[in-house]
Amino acid sequence: MQKTIADLIADQIKKLGINSVYIYPGGTIAPLVNSFVSLGIKIEVFKHEQGAVYAALAKARLTGKLQVAMVTSGPGVTNAITPLADAFYDSTPLLLITGQIGTGDLLSGRKVRQRGFQEVPTLSIVTEISKLALCPSNVNDVIPNLHNLIHTALDGRRGPVVFDLPMDIQRSVAPIDNNTLIPSQNSNVFNSDHNDIQAISKSLMQSKRPMILLGQGALQSGAFDSYKKLCNDFEMLVVSSLPGLGSFDGLDEKFLGYIGHTGHEVANLAVHESDFLLVLGARLDVRQTGNVIDKFVPTGKVAWINNDESELLAPRVRVDWKINSDVGFFVNALISYLDKNRISRDKDWISNKIEVRKNQADDNYPINNTNCIYPKAILQKINEFMLNKKGVVVTGVGSHQQWAARHLDYGPNTWSFLTSAGHGAMGYDIPTAIGAAMTIPEDHMVLCVVGDGSILMNIQELASLAERKLNVKILLLNNRRLGIVSQFQRITWGNDDGAGEFRSPDFVVIANGFGIPARRILLPNEINDGVQWLWSSLGPALLEVHIDHNADVVPMLLGGQMMNEMWQGGRNGP
Question: How many domains are there within the chain?
């Protein structure tokens, strides 16, 4: 039997080492589904396109390898836009295959709104949120296009690509002569001049208050031992960006937390006061630096290492060196230039910052209160259960996201942290948690921390979770409020219409309806038993925690503030 183009694509995907694809079924991808199944590639079906693509992103983030998601044309494409943007802004390698109407209609030249049923102009829609998007117009273009897309997704700064496949091309007979060379899953860059490394090493050696900032690029590079060696041998304190959490041991006393808009106050203060900042794989965007860009590290030098040259060409803040390189390669090269016997640090400053971090002042609450649960209290109890265990924490987007980032500990080979950072998409939570649980070892746990607003965006995926009986524990922090938006409105305008009173359904009943055990706790004296129940449950479980309605993320870096001037609470602005 002659192979079809769909068969050929499936064969190429399998040779890449991909053994499962994530889909929501539809007519224009049916030929591909059939070809994948015939080759033994597992079809993971979700309840919504967002769910399928987010699950694929989880596996891509945790393994560092390209994953494949597949949706049908029209609404399938438009439903996949949000996770596609997530992959683009958080540098996640993804091949999104979209079905499309036949080439006869596509190439007809008819100037009408829609040339076929469930058609949308996919390439026009996705071009700005993907590294590359292609639609072959004949069978001979398919395999060269596929290889080009795979290479692009993995080259330099990783990201998503889109393959828009007309239905008739999928079903066409494959040409006998085709290129079966599969691009490598690994592609790194190292462009570093000897004089630059020498100058950076000299500045670092002479500094009194040096800092390391680890971004997601540092996490993806995976040179964790090298970051630790740089920190320990050369007496440097460490911070991360929000998506960089997990690139350094959160229990190490030299790790001060993450920086930026909702970061740890001591981390922001230390960066502001440092005299040398080594930025490894972070974007230095507004959520990290604030918008007072002329006062970022005002008295220090900044060396910025990033594998995305386009970012380096357009810095928001002053930087002294810009190096286009994989950060792991760069750090190993830098260490060879350094001499730990020639450093002289401000030990009092370093000790002070370590002591402040130990006190964990962020989001403080009245400890003697017995009437309501505060977010920090429940998360600190969760953190006790996480100690000496391994797994993945996934969050939605909102106040709960920031609290989970602040008050849980992450690190290489302990707990990974997955969140929608650049795109900030509510609904990231449940489907990503499912994808994570499908990826990690069965004896590891996935903790999904979510708010009452974010969970409703993709709550249908509780069905996907229940069907698979995965070890996902959902901690639902319910403040009956769209917290982070409400907080912004209150600070800025003194009111929070539309966000301050957010009516929630009965989440326990809903979870039970999907076949997932669930409980609710309301008071501080219920925390220990509630967390114990959640942690010891077999398979999926949901614990709804009613937290203080007015709990804010405090402190917070507001517009017009330098990194040492974080807002400390109150309702009338900074």
Answer: 3
